[in-house]
Amino acid sequence: MVTLPELVPPPVVLPDRVGALRAEVRAFLAEERAADAWRPRADAWLSGWDERFSKELGRRGWLGMAIPTEYGGHARGALERYVVTEELLAAGAPVAAHWIADRQIGPSLMRFGTEEQRQRFLPGIAAGEVYFGIGMSEPDSGSDLASVRSKADRVDGGWELTGTKVWTSGAHHAHALFSLVRTSPRDDANQHAGLSQLIVELDSPGVTIRPIPLLTGAHHFNEVVFDKVFVPDAMVLGEIGQGWHQVTSELAFERSGPERYLSTFPLLVALLGEISGQELDAGRRRDLGGLVARYWTLRRMSLAVAGALEAGEAPELAAAVVKDLGTRFEIEVIDVCRLLLSVPPDPGAEAGFARLLADAVLHAPGFTLRGGTNEILRGIVARGLGLR
Ligand SMILES: Cc1cc2nc3c(=O)[nH]c(=O)nc-3n(C[C@H](O)[C@H](O)[C@H](O)COP(=O)(O)OP(=O)(O)OC[C@H]3O[C@@H](n4cnc5c(N)ncnc54)[C@H](O)[C@@H]3O)c2cc1C
Protein backbone atom coordinates (compact mmCIF):
# COMPACT_ATOMS: atom_id res chain seq x y z
CA MET A 1 0.00 0.00 0.00
CA VAL A 2 1.21 3.49 -0.84
CA THR A 3 1.45 5.75 2.17
CA LEU A 4 0.99 9.40 1.25
CA PRO A 5 3.87 11.50 2.48
CA GLU A 6 2.93 15.07 3.33
CA LEU A 7 2.65 16.89 0.04
CA VAL A 8 3.05 20.33 1.53
CA PRO A 9 4.98 21.28 4.68
CA PRO A 10 3.15 22.51 7.79
CA PRO A 11 1.45 25.94 7.48
CA VAL A 12 3.40 29.03 8.40
CA VAL A 13 2.04 31.97 10.34
CA LEU A 14 3.85 35.15 9.37
CA PRO A 15 5.49 36.76 12.41
CA ASP A 16 4.05 40.10 13.59
CA ARG A 17 7.24 41.91 12.66
CA VAL A 18 6.47 41.59 8.96
CA GLY A 19 3.43 43.87 9.24
CA ALA A 20 5.58 47.00 9.45
CA LEU A 21 7.74 45.81 6.55
CA ARG A 22 4.66 45.20 4.39
CA ALA A 23 3.36 48.69 5.17
CA GLU A 24 6.73 50.22 4.20
CA VAL A 25 6.79 48.37 0.88
CA ARG A 26 3.21 49.39 0.11
CA ALA A 27 3.95 53.03 0.92
CA PHE A 28 7.01 52.95 -1.36
CA LEU A 29 5.01 51.37 -4.20
CA ALA A 30 2.27 53.99 -3.80
CA GLU A 31 4.89 56.78 -4.06
CA GLU A 32 6.36 55.25 -7.19
CA ARG A 33 2.93 54.89 -8.77
CA ALA A 34 2.01 58.46 -7.85
CA ALA A 35 5.19 59.59 -9.63
CA ASP A 36 4.22 57.42 -12.64
CA ALA A 37 7.66 55.79 -12.41
CA TRP A 38 6.25 52.64 -14.05
CA ARG A 39 2.93 51.11 -15.05
CA PRO A 40 1.67 47.84 -13.50
CA ARG A 41 2.12 44.92 -15.88
CA ALA A 42 1.03 41.29 -15.92
CA ASP A 43 4.04 38.94 -15.71
CA ALA A 44 6.34 41.85 -14.80
CA TRP A 45 8.77 39.49 -13.07
CA LEU A 46 9.65 38.18 -16.51
CA SER A 47 9.35 41.32 -18.64
CA GLY A 48 9.65 44.37 -16.38
CA TRP A 49 13.38 45.07 -16.64
CA ASP A 50 14.07 48.33 -14.81
CA GLU A 51 17.54 48.72 -13.33
CA ARG A 52 16.68 51.99 -11.56
CA PHE A 53 13.87 50.23 -9.73
CA SER A 54 16.09 47.26 -8.79
CA LYS A 55 18.77 49.60 -7.42
CA GLU A 56 16.15 51.48 -5.43
CA LEU A 57 14.97 48.22 -3.85
CA GLY A 58 18.61 47.39 -3.10
CA ARG A 59 19.10 50.79 -1.47
CA ARG A 60 16.08 50.14 0.75
CA GLY A 61 17.41 46.76 1.87
CA TRP A 62 14.78 44.71 0.03
CA LEU A 63 17.12 42.55 -2.05
CA GLY A 64 19.47 39.92 -0.70
CA MET A 65 17.23 39.86 2.35
CA ALA A 66 18.25 36.32 3.34
CA ILE A 67 21.96 36.87 2.57
CA PRO A 68 24.24 37.38 5.59
CA THR A 69 25.35 40.93 6.30
CA GLU A 70 29.05 40.19 5.71
CA TYR A 71 28.15 39.76 2.03
CA GLY A 72 26.09 42.92 1.80
CA GLY A 73 22.79 41.19 2.59
CA HIS A 74 20.35 41.79 5.41
CA ALA A 75 20.05 38.43 7.24
CA ARG A 76 16.27 38.83 7.51
CA GLY A 77 15.21 35.40 6.30
CA ALA A 78 12.96 33.83 3.69
CA LEU A 79 9.63 34.91 5.20
CA GLU A 80 10.47 38.61 5.19
CA ARG A 81 11.70 38.23 1.64
CA TYR A 82 8.39 36.56 0.84
CA VAL A 83 6.40 39.54 2.09
CA VAL A 84 8.44 41.98 -0.01
CA THR A 85 8.19 39.86 -3.17
CA GLU A 86 4.46 39.28 -2.87
CA GLU A 87 3.82 43.01 -2.50
CA LEU A 88 5.99 43.78 -5.55
CA LEU A 89 4.30 41.12 -7.68
CA ALA A 90 0.78 42.06 -6.59
CA ALA A 91 1.53 45.63 -7.71
CA GLY A 92 2.86 44.46 -11.11
CA ALA A 93 6.16 46.25 -10.36
CA PRO A 94 9.15 45.93 -12.76
CA VAL A 95 11.27 43.38 -10.88
CA ALA A 96 12.77 41.36 -13.75
CA ALA A 97 16.32 42.76 -13.64
CA HIS A 98 17.17 41.39 -10.21
CA TRP A 99 14.67 38.53 -10.10
CA ILE A 100 16.84 35.52 -10.93
CA ALA A 101 19.85 36.81 -9.00
CA ASP A 102 17.83 37.54 -5.87
CA ARG A 103 15.65 34.41 -6.03
CA GLN A 104 18.11 31.64 -6.72
CA ILE A 105 21.65 32.78 -7.50
CA GLY A 106 22.15 34.33 -4.05
CA PRO A 107 20.95 31.20 -2.19
CA SER A 108 23.03 28.96 -4.49
CA LEU A 109 26.17 31.00 -3.91
CA MET A 110 25.56 30.72 -0.18
CA ARG A 111 25.16 26.96 -0.52
CA PHE A 112 27.79 26.02 -3.09
CA GLY A 113 29.88 29.13 -3.84
CA THR A 114 33.46 29.74 -2.77
CA GLU A 115 34.32 32.60 -0.46
CA GLU A 116 35.76 34.44 -3.46
CA GLN A 117 32.56 33.98 -5.49
CA ARG A 118 30.37 35.14 -2.61
CA GLN A 119 32.45 38.26 -2.04
CA ARG A 120 32.52 39.00 -5.72
CA PHE A 121 28.81 38.65 -6.54
CA LEU A 122 26.64 38.84 -3.41
CA PRO A 123 27.10 42.53 -2.52
CA GLY A 124 26.15 43.51 -6.09
CA ILE A 125 23.11 41.21 -6.02
CA ALA A 126 21.94 42.73 -2.72
CA ALA A 127 22.46 46.22 -4.15
CA GLY A 128 20.34 45.40 -7.23
CA GLU A 129 23.32 46.06 -9.49
CA VAL A 130 24.43 42.58 -10.58
CA TYR A 131 22.11 40.50 -12.76
CA PHE A 132 22.22 36.82 -13.66
CA GLY A 133 20.63 34.46 -16.15
CA ILE A 134 20.05 30.70 -16.06
CA GLY A 135 21.76 28.66 -18.76
CA MET A 136 20.09 25.28 -18.51
CA SER A 137 17.93 24.67 -21.63
CA GLU A 138 19.50 23.83 -25.00
CA PRO A 139 18.06 23.35 -28.51
CA ASP A 140 17.50 19.62 -27.86
CA SER A 141 17.43 19.60 -24.06
CA GLY A 142 14.53 21.06 -22.11
CA SER A 143 12.59 18.63 -19.96
CA ASP A 144 15.32 16.06 -20.45
CA LEU A 145 17.89 18.41 -18.98
CA ALA A 146 20.48 15.72 -18.32
CA SER A 147 20.94 15.45 -22.09
CA VAL A 148 22.68 18.88 -22.30
CA ARG A 149 25.50 18.85 -24.82
CA SER A 150 27.34 22.07 -24.00
CA LYS A 151 30.70 20.74 -23.01
CA ALA A 152 33.66 22.07 -21.09
CA ASP A 153 37.10 20.58 -21.65
CA ARG A 154 39.86 20.80 -19.07
CA VAL A 155 42.56 23.36 -20.02
CA ASP A 156 45.35 25.01 -18.12
CA GLY A 157 43.80 27.00 -15.21
CA GLY A 158 40.18 26.28 -16.06
CA TRP A 159 37.69 24.99 -18.63
CA GLU A 160 37.04 25.65 -22.32
CA LEU A 161 33.30 25.79 -22.96
CA THR A 162 31.54 25.14 -26.29
CA GLY A 163 27.80 24.81 -26.91
CA THR A 164 24.47 26.63 -27.23
CA LYS A 165 21.84 27.59 -24.65
CA VAL A 166 18.29 28.70 -25.58
CA TRP A 167 15.35 30.51 -23.98
CA THR A 168 17.86 32.28 -21.77
CA SER A 169 15.81 34.98 -20.06
CA GLY A 170 17.50 38.37 -19.80
CA ALA A 171 20.95 37.20 -20.97
CA HIS A 172 21.30 40.33 -23.15
CA HIS A 173 21.31 42.50 -20.01
CA ALA A 174 22.79 40.09 -17.46
CA HIS A 175 26.37 40.06 -16.22
CA ALA A 176 26.73 36.31 -15.87
CA LEU A 177 25.01 32.98 -16.39
CA PHE A 178 24.84 29.90 -14.20
CA SER A 179 25.41 27.27 -16.89
CA LEU A 180 24.84 23.53 -16.67
CA VAL A 181 27.42 21.80 -18.85
CA ARG A 182 28.98 18.43 -19.43
CA THR A 183 32.50 18.13 -18.00
CA SER A 184 32.87 14.42 -18.75
CA PRO A 185 31.30 12.25 -21.46
CA ARG A 186 27.74 11.01 -21.03
CA ASP A 187 27.44 7.64 -19.35
CA ASP A 188 24.13 6.02 -20.36
CA ALA A 189 24.08 4.02 -17.12
CA ASN A 190 24.19 7.25 -15.07
CA GLN A 191 23.24 10.22 -17.22
CA HIS A 192 23.23 12.61 -14.25
CA ALA A 193 26.94 12.08 -13.67
CA GLY A 194 29.55 14.25 -15.39
CA LEU A 195 27.52 17.49 -15.25
CA SER A 196 28.86 20.66 -13.65
CA GLN A 197 27.82 24.26 -13.12
CA LEU A 198 30.02 27.04 -14.41
CA ILE A 199 29.58 30.76 -13.78
CA VAL A 200 30.06 32.27 -17.23
CA GLU A 201 30.64 36.01 -17.36
CA LEU A 202 28.81 37.22 -20.41
CA ASP A 203 31.48 39.67 -21.59
CA SER A 204 33.96 36.77 -21.98
CA PRO A 205 35.51 36.35 -25.45
CA GLY A 206 33.63 33.69 -27.45
CA VAL A 207 30.14 34.45 -26.02
CA THR A 208 27.49 35.49 -28.60
CA ILE A 209 23.98 36.48 -27.48
CA ARG A 210 21.17 36.59 -30.05
CA PRO A 211 17.52 37.57 -29.44
CA ILE A 212 14.60 35.14 -29.78
CA PRO A 213 11.52 37.46 -29.91
CA LEU A 214 8.48 36.70 -27.72
CA LEU A 215 4.96 36.46 -29.20
CA THR A 216 4.65 40.15 -28.29
CA GLY A 217 7.76 40.93 -30.37
CA ALA A 218 9.60 41.93 -27.18
CA HIS A 219 13.20 40.89 -26.63
CA HIS A 220 13.30 38.79 -23.50
CA PHE A 221 14.68 35.39 -24.56
CA ASN A 222 18.04 34.68 -26.08
CA GLU A 223 20.15 32.08 -27.72
CA VAL A 224 23.59 32.13 -26.09
CA VAL A 225 26.42 30.54 -28.04
CA PHE A 226 29.70 29.59 -26.37
CA ASP A 227 32.60 29.23 -28.76
CA LYS A 228 35.68 28.05 -26.86
CA VAL A 229 34.91 30.31 -23.90
CA PHE A 230 37.56 30.15 -21.17
CA VAL A 231 36.05 29.76 -17.68
CA PRO A 232 38.68 29.94 -14.93
CA ASP A 233 38.69 27.38 -12.11
CA ALA A 234 37.61 30.19 -9.78
CA MET A 235 34.27 30.30 -11.62
CA VAL A 236 33.35 26.64 -11.12
CA LEU A 237 30.28 26.57 -8.87
CA GLY A 238 30.47 23.85 -6.25
CA GLU A 239 32.11 20.64 -7.34
CA ILE A 240 32.93 19.35 -10.79
CA GLY A 241 30.58 16.43 -11.49
CA GLN A 242 27.96 17.58 -8.94
CA GLY A 243 26.02 19.83 -11.34
CA TRP A 244 22.87 17.72 -11.37
CA HIS A 245 22.60 17.55 -7.62
CA GLN A 246 23.26 21.30 -7.34
CA VAL A 247 20.77 22.29 -10.03
CA THR A 248 17.97 20.16 -8.60
CA SER A 249 18.53 21.62 -5.15
CA GLU A 250 17.95 25.12 -6.64
CA LEU A 251 14.56 24.09 -7.98
CA ALA A 252 12.63 24.50 -4.74
CA PHE A 253 13.65 28.18 -4.76
CA GLU A 254 12.66 28.47 -8.39
CA ARG A 255 9.30 26.72 -8.29
CA SER A 256 7.44 27.68 -5.14
CA GLY A 257 7.54 31.47 -4.85
CA PRO A 258 4.61 33.88 -5.18
CA GLU A 259 5.55 34.54 -8.83
CA ARG A 260 4.07 31.12 -9.62
CA TYR A 261 0.53 32.25 -8.83
CA LEU A 262 0.64 36.07 -8.96
CA SER A 263 1.74 36.70 -12.60
CA THR A 264 -1.79 37.73 -13.55
CA PHE A 265 -2.84 39.27 -10.22
CA PRO A 266 -2.48 42.88 -11.54
CA LEU A 267 -5.09 41.97 -14.17
CA LEU A 268 -7.54 40.96 -11.44
CA VAL A 269 -6.87 44.24 -9.61
CA ALA A 270 -7.59 46.17 -12.83
CA LEU A 271 -10.77 44.17 -13.36
CA LEU A 272 -11.98 45.02 -9.85
CA GLY A 273 -11.32 48.70 -10.59
CA GLU A 274 -13.37 48.49 -13.80
CA ILE A 275 -16.36 46.72 -12.27
CA SER A 276 -16.43 48.47 -8.90
CA GLY A 277 -19.88 49.81 -8.10
CA GLN A 278 -21.58 47.36 -10.48
CA GLU A 279 -24.20 44.92 -9.21
CA LEU A 280 -22.84 41.45 -9.94
CA ASP A 281 -25.14 38.48 -10.40
CA ALA A 282 -24.68 35.37 -8.26
CA GLY A 283 -22.67 33.54 -10.96
CA ARG A 284 -20.15 36.37 -11.28
CA ARG A 285 -19.84 36.73 -7.53
CA ARG A 286 -19.15 33.00 -7.35
CA ASP A 287 -16.47 33.27 -10.07
CA LEU A 288 -14.73 36.10 -8.23
CA GLY A 289 -15.10 34.47 -4.81
CA GLY A 290 -13.65 31.25 -6.22
CA LEU A 291 -10.57 33.09 -7.46
CA VAL A 292 -10.00 34.82 -4.14
CA ALA A 293 -10.39 31.57 -2.20
CA ARG A 294 -7.87 29.85 -4.43
CA TYR A 295 -5.41 32.73 -4.19
CA TRP A 296 -5.60 32.32 -0.44
CA THR A 297 -5.02 28.57 -0.61
CA LEU A 298 -2.08 28.86 -3.01
CA ARG A 299 -0.54 31.54 -0.84
CA ARG A 300 -0.73 29.30 2.22
CA MET A 301 0.91 26.47 0.31
CA SER A 302 3.63 28.67 -1.15
CA LEU A 303 4.31 30.23 2.27
CA ALA A 304 4.61 26.76 3.75
CA VAL A 305 7.37 26.00 1.24
CA ALA A 306 9.09 29.29 2.11
CA GLY A 307 8.94 28.23 5.77
CA ALA A 308 10.56 24.88 4.94
CA LEU A 309 13.29 26.64 2.92
CA GLU A 310 13.89 28.93 5.89
CA ALA A 311 14.32 25.83 8.06
CA GLY A 312 17.04 24.60 5.69
CA GLU A 313 14.96 21.90 4.00
CA ALA A 314 14.73 21.32 0.22
CA PRO A 315 10.99 20.73 -0.32
CA GLU A 316 11.21 19.86 -4.03
CA LEU A 317 7.99 17.84 -4.05
CA ALA A 318 5.91 20.56 -2.40
CA ALA A 319 7.43 23.17 -4.72
CA ALA A 320 6.34 21.07 -7.73
CA VAL A 321 2.77 20.94 -6.37
CA VAL A 322 2.67 24.72 -5.84
CA LYS A 323 4.00 25.42 -9.32
CA ASP A 324 1.64 23.03 -11.09
CA LEU A 325 -1.47 24.36 -9.31
CA GLY A 326 -0.31 27.98 -9.30
CA THR A 327 0.58 28.29 -12.98
CA ARG A 328 -2.68 26.70 -14.13
CA PHE A 329 -4.52 29.06 -11.81
CA GLU A 330 -2.75 32.10 -13.34
CA ILE A 331 -4.32 31.16 -16.68
CA GLU A 332 -7.78 30.63 -15.14
CA VAL A 333 -7.60 34.17 -13.73
CA ILE A 334 -7.38 35.44 -17.33
CA ASP A 335 -10.39 33.33 -18.33
CA VAL A 336 -12.53 34.67 -15.47
CA CYS A 337 -11.48 38.28 -16.19
CA ARG A 338 -12.51 37.85 -19.83
CA LEU A 339 -15.88 36.44 -18.77
CA LEU A 340 -16.53 39.31 -16.38
CA LEU A 341 -15.48 42.19 -18.60
CA SER A 342 -15.92 42.22 -22.32
CA VAL A 343 -12.99 44.44 -23.32
CA PRO A 344 -10.69 43.35 -26.18
CA PRO A 345 -6.99 43.01 -25.31
CA ASP A 346 -4.91 45.98 -26.54
CA PRO A 347 -1.14 45.41 -26.63
CA GLY A 348 -0.64 48.99 -27.85
CA ALA A 349 -2.37 50.64 -24.87
CA GLU A 350 -0.14 52.43 -22.37
CA ALA A 351 -1.85 50.95 -19.34
CA GLY A 352 -5.15 49.73 -17.95
CA PHE A 353 -7.20 46.55 -18.20
CA ALA A 354 -6.92 46.13 -22.00
CA ARG A 355 -3.10 46.33 -21.89
CA LEU A 356 -2.81 44.04 -18.86
CA LEU A 357 -5.12 41.57 -20.57
CA ALA A 358 -3.03 41.61 -23.76
CA ASP A 359 0.20 41.00 -21.83
CA ALA A 360 -1.42 38.25 -19.77
CA VAL A 361 -2.84 36.46 -22.83
CA LEU A 362 0.41 36.71 -24.79
CA HIS A 363 2.58 35.54 -21.88
CA ALA A 364 0.26 32.79 -20.65
CA PRO A 365 1.62 30.01 -22.90
CA GLY A 366 4.91 30.23 -21.00
CA PHE A 367 3.43 29.99 -17.48
CA THR A 368 3.23 26.19 -17.38
CA LEU A 369 6.51 25.69 -19.29
CA ARG A 370 9.13 27.88 -17.64
CA GLY A 371 10.98 26.38 -14.71
CA GLY A 372 9.91 22.84 -15.73
CA THR A 373 6.68 21.89 -17.52
CA ASN A 374 3.59 20.73 -15.63
CA GLU A 375 3.89 17.23 -17.09
CA ILE A 376 7.39 16.99 -15.62
CA LEU A 377 6.19 18.38 -12.29
CA ARG A 378 3.45 15.77 -12.13
CA GLY A 379 6.07 13.10 -12.73
CA ILE A 380 7.99 14.44 -9.71
CA VAL A 381 4.83 14.41 -7.60
CA ALA A 382 3.99 10.86 -8.72
CA ARG A 383 7.51 9.71 -7.84
CA GLY A 384 7.30 11.46 -4.46
CA LEU A 385 4.04 9.63 -3.74
CA GLY A 386 5.65 6.33 -4.67
CA LEU A 387 3.39 5.91 -7.70
CA ARG A 388 6.18 5.53 -10.27
C1 LIG B 1 8.96 32.23 -20.41
C2 LIG B 1 10.07 31.22 -20.37
C3 LIG B 1 11.29 31.55 -19.80
C4 LIG B 1 12.34 30.61 -19.80
N1 LIG B 1 13.55 30.99 -19.28
C5 LIG B 1 14.57 30.09 -19.29
C6 LIG B 1 15.85 30.48 -18.80
O1 LIG B 1 16.06 31.62 -18.37
N2 LIG B 1 16.85 29.58 -18.82
C7 LIG B 1 16.66 28.32 -19.30
O2 LIG B 1 17.60 27.53 -19.23
N3 LIG B 1 15.46 27.91 -19.79
C8 LIG B 1 14.41 28.79 -19.81
N4 LIG B 1 13.20 28.41 -20.32
C9 LIG B 1 13.06 27.11 -20.95
C10 LIG B 1 12.21 26.14 -20.16
O3 LIG B 1 12.88 25.69 -19.01
C11 LIG B 1 11.86 24.98 -21.11
O4 LIG B 1 11.00 25.50 -22.10
C12 LIG B 1 11.18 23.84 -20.40
O5 LIG B 1 12.04 23.21 -19.51
C13 LIG B 1 10.64 22.78 -21.41
O6 LIG B 1 11.63 22.41 -22.30
P1 LIG B 1 11.37 22.45 -23.88
O7 LIG B 1 10.85 23.80 -24.24
O8 LIG B 1 12.60 21.95 -24.56
O9 LIG B 1 10.18 21.42 -24.14
P2 LIG B 1 10.28 19.83 -24.24
O10 LIG B 1 11.11 19.30 -23.14
O11 LIG B 1 10.66 19.49 -25.64
O12 LIG B 1 8.78 19.40 -23.99
C14 LIG B 1 7.75 19.53 -24.98
C15 LIG B 1 6.46 18.97 -24.40
O13 LIG B 1 6.63 17.56 -24.09
C16 LIG B 1 6.32 17.31 -22.73
N5 LIG B 1 7.25 16.31 -22.17
C17 LIG B 1 8.60 16.28 -22.33
N6 LIG B 1 9.11 15.24 -21.66
C18 LIG B 1 8.09 14.61 -21.04
C19 LIG B 1 7.98 13.46 -20.18
N7 LIG B 1 9.05 12.79 -19.79
N8 LIG B 1 6.74 13.13 -19.72
C20 LIG B 1 5.63 13.83 -20.08
N9 LIG B 1 5.68 14.89 -20.91
C21 LIG B 1 6.88 15.29 -21.37
C22 LIG B 1 6.53 18.65 -22.02
O14 LIG B 1 5.76 18.71 -20.84
C23 LIG B 1 6.07 19.64 -23.07
O15 LIG B 1 4.66 19.78 -23.04
C24 LIG B 1 12.15 29.32 -20.35
C25 LIG B 1 10.90 28.99 -20.92
C26 LIG B 1 9.87 29.91 -20.94
C27 LIG B 1 8.56 29.54 -21.57
Computed structural class: alpha+beta
Percent helix: 40-55%
Instruction: Name the CATH homologous superfamily of the largest domain.
Output: Butyryl-CoA Dehydrogenase, subunit A, domain 3
Percentage of residues in DSSP E strands = 5-15%
Main sheet: which strands, in order across? Answer: 1-4-5-8
What's the mean pLDDT score?
Answer: 94
Write the layout of secondary structure elements.
Elements: H1 18-34, H2 44-47, H3 51-59, H4 78-90, H5 96-112, H6 115-126, E1 132-135, E2 151-155, E3 158-165, E4 176-182, E5 195-201, E6 207-213, E7 219-232, E8 236-237, H7 243-255, H8 265-275, H9 282-310, H10 316-340, H11 353-367, H12 374-384
Parallel strand pairs: 1-4
Antiparallel strand pairs: 2-3, 3-7, 4-5, 5-8, 6-7
Helix pairs in contact: 1-4, 5-6, 5-7, 7-10, 8-10, 8-11, 9-10, 10-11, 10-12
The protein binds flavin-adenine dinucleotide.
Flavin-adenine dinucleotide binds at residues 46, 133-137, 142-143, 167-169, 366, 369-370, 372-373, 375-376, 379.
Kindly describe this structure.
With 388 residues, the chain is α+β, with helices and mostly antiparallel strands. The chain has 3 domains: 18-131, Orthogonal Bundle (Butyryl-Coa Dehydrogenase, subunit A, domain 1), CATH 1.10.540.10; 134-240, Butyryl-CoA Dehydrogenase, subunit A, domain 2 (Beta Barrel), CATH 2.40.110.10; 246-384, Butyryl-CoA Dehydrogenase, subunit A, domain 3, CATH 1.20.140. Helices cover 45% and strands 14% of the residues. It contains 12 helices and 8 strands. The strands form 2 sheets. It has a 4-stranded mixed beta sheet, with helices on one face. Strands 2-3-7-6 form a 4-stranded antiparallel beta sheet, with no helix packed on it. The longest helix is centred in the C-terminal third of the chain and has 29 residues, at 282-310. The relative contact order is 0.13. Bound molecules: flavin-adenine dinucleotide (FAD).
